Each structure stands twice: as C-alpha cells, then as structure tokens.
Amino acid sequence: MTQKLIVIGAGMATGRMLETLVEQHADFDITLFNAEPRGNYNRIMLSPVLSGEKTYAEIVTHDDDWYTASGITCRFGERIAGINTAAKTVTAENGDVLEYDKLVFGTGSNPFMIPLPGHDLEGVIAYRDLEDTQRMMDLGEGNKVVVIGGGLLGLEAAAGMAARGVDVTVVHIMDHLMERQLDEAAGYLLRRALVDKGITVKCAANSKEILGEKGKVRALLLDDGTELPCDLLVMAVGIRPNIKLATEAGLAVGKGIHVDDQMVTSDADILAVGECVEHQGAIFGLVAPLYDQAKVAAQTLMGQEAAFVQKELSTKLKVTGCDLFSAGDFAEGETREDIVFRDPARGVYKRLVLENNVVVGAVFYGDTTDSNWFFGLIRDKTDISDMRETLIFGPNMQGGEVDPLQAVAALPADAEICGCNGICKGQIVEAIEGGATTLADIKAGTKASGSCGTCTGLVEQVLAVTLGDDFVVPAAASVCGCTELTHEDVRRLIKSQGLKSQDAVWQQLAWSTPNGCHVCRPAINYYLIADWPLEYQDDPQSRFVNERNHANIQKDGTYSVVPRMWGGITTPDELRAIADAADKYNVPTVKVTGGQRIDLLGVRKEDLPAMWYDLNKAGMVSGHAYSKGLRTVKTCVGTDHCRFGTQDSTGLGIKLEKLLWGSWTPHKVKLGVSGCPRNCAEATCKDVGIICVDSGYEVSVAGAAGMDVRETELLAKVPTEEEAIAVTTAYIQIYRENAKYLDRGYKWVAKVGLDWVKEQVVDDLENRAALVARFELSQSIYRNDPWAEHAAKADAYQPLADLTLEAAE
Ligand SMILES: Cc1cc2nc3c(=O)[nH]c(=O)nc-3n(C[C@H](O)[C@H](O)[C@H](O)COP(=O)(O)OP(=O)(O)OC[C@H]3O[C@@H](n4cnc5c(N)ncnc54)[C@H](O)[C@@H]3O)c2cc1C
Ligand code: SF4
To answer: Nitrite/sulphite reductase 4Fe-4S domain spans which residues (predicted)?
Structure first.
C-alpha cells in the first residue's frame, strides 16, 4: 500500500533524496514542507548569484513542473511547528495536522549569530538563503558593508558585494583568512587577491559591539576602539545544525540529530539527512557527504540495503580570480613533512603535507589544475615514495609524460571526479558508453559538474579521453585559448565588475595572454562598446578587416564600396556622385545589391580614402556596409506609389535606417519593411521585418536568408509607427546587450526564447523605454560616419585578422 511520506525542508539534501525516490518510482505519497517560500535550489550557487555571474532562475534545481510531474504535494513557505511521534503526525504552522508513515528531517542549519550587543539591529544579517542574498544585492554602489568572518562564506559574500561596487570590509578574528583550510602563506596570497579586488581585510580583529541609530545598524566597533561604519553587517561565522524541532519531538540529539548508517534517527520511522544530522560524532557543512546521505536515506525508505560512510572532504573557494583548493589535514606534527612550491611572480603556492609517504593534506593557491589528482592521493592513501621527487609538479610529470590528458586516462575507474555529487570516473565512462557525448549529457545522466561546477574541466577531459576524436568541444566553450570563461561569463562579469577597458578585462578576468588574441579582442571590444558607450574608447585595432577598412575585401584583394541610400531611396545627385566616383577611380563593376544599394566593386585599397572623400562631399555616408552593425533597411514603395500599400513603408524604412545606423551589434543586422502582406521587401527573412497592415504594423524578428534560411517570428503587432520604431529599437538594444559576439539574431533568440524577448520588449513597457533610452545614449557616441573620420588618413589599414570575410552581396 502507498505510504505517506512527509519531508521537512526542501534543501539540497532532501532534493537529492526526492530525486532518487522519483527516479526509482518509489511508492510514496509525498508532501514536502519548506520554511522558505520556494522549492529546491542550489544553495551553493548563491555566491555566483550575488556576484552577478548567475541569476536565481539558473540555480533552481527542481521547478514547479518537476514537482507536478513527480506527484509531490508542495507546501512552500510553511514551517512544521511540531511532531507527535506516538500518533505519527506533524502539525504545520497553520494548525493542519497530517499523518505520516515515514518522516524525513532535512532542516539544515541555522547561521550562528555572535550575541554581540546590537546583533538584533535592523541591517544585521546572515548569509544563508535567497533573502539574505537579495539584501546584499539590493545595496547600491558606494554603500558600506562589514562582513564578520573570513571563512569560505564570508569571503564569497565580500567578493560578491565588492563586484557590485559596494565598499566591503572583512573582519576576521584569526591572524589569517580561512585558517581552518589554509596555511599562513596561502592565507596571505588570498588576502592580497581580495585587497586587489578593493576589499579591506582586517585580521586579528575582535568585534566588540554593533552600533546602531534609530534601530538600524550604523557601525561595527572593534575592541581596539576602531569604528567601521556600515549600512549592512553580514555575520558569516559558522552554522549550527537546526535541531529544535527534533529535540522537541523527543528524538536523540547531540550537536545534530543522531542517525545511524542508514540515516534513521532514534525513531525507526523518522530519518534525517543533511546539515541537521550528527553521524558518528561528526556534523556536516559541505554538500558532498549530504548527497551520499540523501541516496542512502532514499534506499532505506525503499527497503534497500545501504550505508553512509564518511569520506575525506575538500574545499574550493568560488571567487572569480582566486583559485584556491584545500583538502585533508595540514597541521604540523613531528612525523610530518612538507613539500612547498612557490612562484611569486605568478602568485602560485602549493603545499603538500606528507606522513609516512602518504599525502595527508594539500593546499593550492593560484593553480588548482591538478587538485583532483592530489585529492585522490589523499583519499586513497596512495604510497608516493616512487614519485616523491616530482610529486609537487602533478600527474603530468609522473612517468616523464607531459600529456595533460594522460593523467586523466591513468585515473582508475573509482577516482572521484565530481566531489559535490560523489561521481567517479567509472560512472562518467559508463554514461559515455551509454551514448553521452557532451557535458550536458553527462550532467543530465550522472549529475557530475552539476553543482559547484569546479570539476567541469575534468569531466570534459574524461569525455575527451573516452571519446577520442569524436569529442567536440561543447558550444559553451571558452571565448578562446586566452581564457576559460565563456562569452556569457565574460559579458556578465564585465557588467557586474564594472570593467571598462580591455586592460581591466585582461587583468581582472585573469586572461592568460597579455592583450588577448585575434579571436577574443573583437568580442571584448564589442562588449565594452555595448556596455559602456560613454566611458569606453573603441579600439580600431580590435576589429575585423571589413570594419577596419570600412569596405569589404574581395577575392582579388580589391574592395567594394557601398554608400548608404537611406531606405533604398536615392537622388539624381547621388547617382551622379556614384557615377563620377566609378569613373574617377576606374571601378570595373557597378552592381545593385540585394539590399537596394549600389555596390562599387573592384576599388583599389589606396583609392579608398579619396573615393570616400568624394562621396562624402556629395552627402553620402557609409562605412558600415559590411560591419557587425546595421547593414540596410530594404523597403517596398508603399503607399506613395503602390495600389496595395497600407502605410508609408518607404518612409518608415528611412526613419529606421537613420535611427539605427552606426550602432555596433553582435553580428550584422538587416531590416525590411513591406507596405502590405504581399511583402515585396522580403521582410520576413530579415533580422527585423515589418509588415504594414490595415490595423498597424507587424514587427517580426529572427529571420535569416544566408547559410541558414529562417522565417521571422512575430514579436508584436502594434497600431502606430512610433510603437513599431520603439519595439524595433528595444529589440536591437536587448540583442546588443545580451547576445554572444558573432551570434546572429536568430541564433540568440533560439537560445533565450522568443517568449523572454516578448516579456522584455513588448509586455514590459518600462523596460522597453529603458532599452530605447540606452540605445539612444549609445548612438549619441556611435552614430557617426567612419568614412568622414578616415577619409583623410591613407594609412593604417592593416587588418587584425581576415577570418570573417563577408560574402560579396
Ligand atoms: C552561500 C553559501 C555557499 C555555499 N557554498 C558551498 C560550496 O561551495 N560547497 C559546498 O559543498 N557547500 C557549500 N555551502 C553549504 C551547502 O549549501 C549546505 O551544506 C547545504 O545546502 C545543506 O543542505 P541541507 O539540505 O542540509 O540544508 P538546506 O539546503 O539549508 O535546506 C534546509 C531547508 O529546510 C528548511 N527548514 C528548516 N526548518 C524547517 C521547518 N521547521 N519546516 C519546514 N522547513 C524547514 C529551510 O528553510 C531550508 O530551506 C554553501 C552554503 C551557503 C549558504
Ligand atoms: S509590399 Fe504591398 S505595398 Fe509594398 S510594393 Fe508590394 S504590394 Fe505594394
């Protein structure tokens, strides 16, 4: 018969337990209570949310659809207030009494608040959940924050807020940061890296009192009399298992709720998992053991045999630019020896602690590439006598080989790859043999790399080793060889860390080359232009050949020149100027392009500036005809001449072109405006296509007619020309602000979803106006004619790269 299972707490541990139950079709009628007003999310990713590297939506592990499909009754925002173990009932906060056959505790921890005078003032918070994170995110630039606690959580909070421009001071009672995980030398390097991020660090500092004003925090007073003013005070000094409810229910508790190897408490029908648990005298604060407990609890509930075994743990700090790994025990001792490697110039420090030829502890700062291999040595208690001399240089130096994949190939099947989820190499290889070929497949099939993500590189190496040539670097690969960050990461970090120059990007995002390369520089140049139009100075050296030359290079080395004809309209004077230029510079071919412009083909490079000068004099601008920017707006003749036209499509096309020209975009942008659904301007295969209809304007987006042929999709139907222009402008701007460099509009829309674009551009009028305003701000700088600017300069046309030759049109 179906049993009633009540779960208290939708945390990381119970989330994993529920998944196992659902996957194995366990016969339970499940009700899930959570004090937080939401379901399971990846709590460890709150730090990337705080720093702006991820959004909350991206860290949700189980959404409403999953609970519905799994038949779980959710009572979020509801706390369990009491348990009657004799009657086997729980009482919810609102007084509802529910019966259970089995009950699982997953109540996690409470952050410890030092009972300093003033700890209950408004503005004194912990760092535990989304509400705390939101409080920190709500602080504006220039606000002051004090973080008490220089451990993992405190430092992630500090770095996250500093990335948002908040003035942060970390107060730590010990002599160096993260003293439980790091030795002094690594602690020093970490401190220096944080100071470089603008964070003030005070070690050996004792907090005395929290000072307030009108009930709100004002400053932290240290016992040496120093006052540190603050608008918010974050206490991150440790956690205590949340055992109140269990104690009141009469369960056996110590520091946490006592459980046996099967995760059963002192009551045979009640189990407990996660940070609220005490197992063999130990309590837990990292997810790896909690996930093991969760699996064991699920198996116990299903009547299967399983036992929880405690394993060695490791720590990584999730602060961009602070590569830090620590595992095992590195306290000093008579039988212990150290191997230390320092490279001060690179800020690299590695220390191994050995005891009886076994590695018992490891601390790495600055280069953590081989940390998993060392962690395996610690966990497996491997005898390292034979490799002692080269041990510190990592797996690549063992056996004289320097192939980075060799170390991964040599790992045994039971070597742990993903610490959070306890996934070993063998499970990943099994998934690959079962058909997985991408990181996403591995994540979905095994959960490896699905939590804190620090093992992603290693999982990819296992893929590469197992699949050989069949392994294709995933689409979300890094920008280029100069960084491990993806385009999306870089875009987010440029915004969240306020990086406003190329140097700031190379430095802050730890580029491995001094000035980037021909792949990343155009992208970074574009991102900086798009995000900081007023502050950033465009770098012509970081542009592709067509943009640098303001003309398109052709197969014989000559160039094509395409003067702008707004909306495809021209005049006899313009035609004369074009004809004169064609004569004067011996242009061999004059061609009408598909975008309704006249293309002068076969121009010699040395003639370009003079020719631009002549065309400029005749009032013609261009220079963007082959740019990653607005190309042309194709129009039909519309109401002026056509019997069918419903609106002035030519006029609208001209307005749009005059508005949008000059803006830089992730890739080229083409528009079309047709005066009626007969669509003579072929608007439905453009990046933005507008069809005029009796009732107004249909604005559709994400079309293409190149290597991929796509019909546009309807974004909005609007009654007025003003709205059609506003929707178009807002769409271009949201594409400019979000897309990966060199992603065409249709590719970007496929990634983010048209519904999201509609929400931002069509439904949210305030956001639409803000996007238009930001576009106009950018255009105040960039709506200029590069021909005019460069017409006088005959030199400096060396391309950075000619990788992106555009097809001649
Ligand atoms: C900012 C941050 C960063 C972290 N980074 C890392 C990291 O990098 N690596 C790592 O391994 N670990 C990290 N951790 C620790 C990790 O998140 C925890 O170990 C893990 O979330 C604990 O899981 P849990 O299921 O035991 O409890 P939780 O995830 O805390 O879930 C407990 C849930 O129970 C609910 N609850 C409590 N009482 C009741 C009640 N009476 N009724 C109903 N619901 C109740 C709570 O509201 C809560 O939602 C981090 C933690 C934080 C806060
Ligand atoms: S699209 Fe309609 S209005 Fe425009 S030219 Fe063709 S038939 Fe005429």
So the answer is: 628-767
Edge-to-edge strand ranges of the sheet holding 630-635: 630-635, 669-674, 688-693, 696-701, 713-718
Between the CA of 43 and the centroid of ligand 1 the distance, in Å, is 6
Cα separation, 290 vs 276, whole angstroms: 10
Is the distance from CB of 49 to CB of 133 less than 8 angstroms?
yes
Alpha-carbon span 367 to 345, nearest angstrom: 13
Smallest CA-to-CA distance from 257 within 247, 73, 248 is with 247
Q: Are strands 216-222 and 227-229 parallel, antiparallel or unpaired?
A: antiparallel
Bridge partners, 122 (sequence order): 216
For residue 642, say whether it is annotated as part of any ligand binding site: yes
pLDDT bracket for residue 266 (50, 70, 90):
very high
Q: What's the one-letter identity of residue 537?
A: Q
Q: Tens digit of pLDDT for each residue in 83-92? A: 999 999 999 9
Angle between helical axes of 287-301 and 12-23 (0-180°, round to 10): 40
The beta-strand segments (E) located in 203-286 are 207-213, 216-222, 227-229, 232-235, 239-241, 257-259, 270-272, 277-279
Q: What is the pTM of this model?
A: 0.61
Where does ligand 2 bind, in terms of residues with CB under 6 Å?
Answer: 636-638, 642, 644-645, 649, 674-676, 678-680
| Burial group, residue 642, by CB count within 10 angstroms (0-12, 13-18, 19+) | middle
Distance CA 251, CA 245 (A): 9
pLDDT (tens digit, 9 = 90+) per residue, 157-179?
999 999 888 999 999 999 889 88
Q: Is 643 helix (H, G, I), strand (E, B) or coil?
A: coil
Q: Whose CA is nearest to atom 4 of ligand 2?
A: 675
Q: Which of 30, 29, 27, 35 is nearest to 10 (CA)?
A: 35
Ligand closest to Cα of 242 equals 1
Whether the CB-CB separation of 235 and 124 falls below 8 Å is answered with yes
